[in-house]
Amino acid sequence: MPASAAGPAEDSPEQGQRGIVRSVLSASALLARFTGGRRDLRLSDLAREVGLNVSTAHRLLQTLVASGLLEQDAASDRYSPGPVLIEIANGLLTADRTANTADILTALAARTGESISLGARINGEAVVLLHVPSSHQLRFERKVGDRIALHASALGKALLAWAPEPADDLVRSLTPLSALTAETVTTVRGLTADLRATRDRGYAVSKGEEVPGIRSVGAPVLDSSGVAIAAVEVAGPSDRLRDGDVAEFARILAGGAGAIQHVPDADLLF
């Protein structure tokens, strides 16, 4: 008996409509919940917002974490954009060469002669989103995606000083404060006082607190309510970035931070 010709295979439940994989759609829906600067989201909230049961949402989120698209805070179990997602956003932003954030950072590096970084606070750390190195052969460099101690860098202290949380509570949440160098502030009282002084003067300073021999100055990028959504930092060798340069560099950074606030789609990074 001749075999009958096989008809077209039916789509599997996983595949849904021909060529469309439902789990990928669900994962994409989860990623979309992090637009508009959202971070530190709970599993239950994400599952509810995209219409998934908790176990399915958890499995997809863990896959996204493993891929680097998301990251999960070990203490709170909440989810935030991961290094790969940040890198994608960075690529989208810097592709537009007309008055964008990368151009502003490049101009800051040219004016100061030192390396410039832009970062945001994610899961208890400062994460580098963009970096423009100094043209000097001897220079301080960071890499996009680097995790930086908030309490030791000017970038981190600018993020902390203009955070929405009370300074005392925020500093306690970071303990223990690791001593990265002999100059690192490692007490709650000391760092709280430093952050208040930072807020009063309008900019953050780190002198050898993160890396010996490196001085950095940081300024916040503020939202409409005055909360830091990011910070910009200039950093270089202390024998070149001297005490007399700090106030002027802070003024230059403040201008750059203000310009970043008005860049179209800059919030893709934050």
Automatic annotation (TrEMBL):
One BP term from GO: negative regulation of DNA-templated transcription
Domain IclR-ED: 84-266
UniProt GO MF annotations: DNA binding; DNA-binding transcription factor activity
Gene3D superfamilies xrefs: 3.30.450.40, Winged helix-like DNA-binding domain superfamily/Winged helix DNA-binding domain
HTH iclR-type domain mapped to chain residues: 21-83
InterPro entries cross-referenced by the UniProt entry: GAF-like_dom_sf, HTH_MetabolicPath_Reg, Tscrpt_reg_IclR_C, Tscrpt_reg_IclR_N, WH-like_DNA-bd_sf, WH_DNA-bd_sf
This protein's UniProt keywords: DNA-binding, Glycerol metabolism, Transcription, Transcription regulation
Function (record text): May be an activator protein for the gylABX operon.
Protein name: Glycerol operon regulatory protein
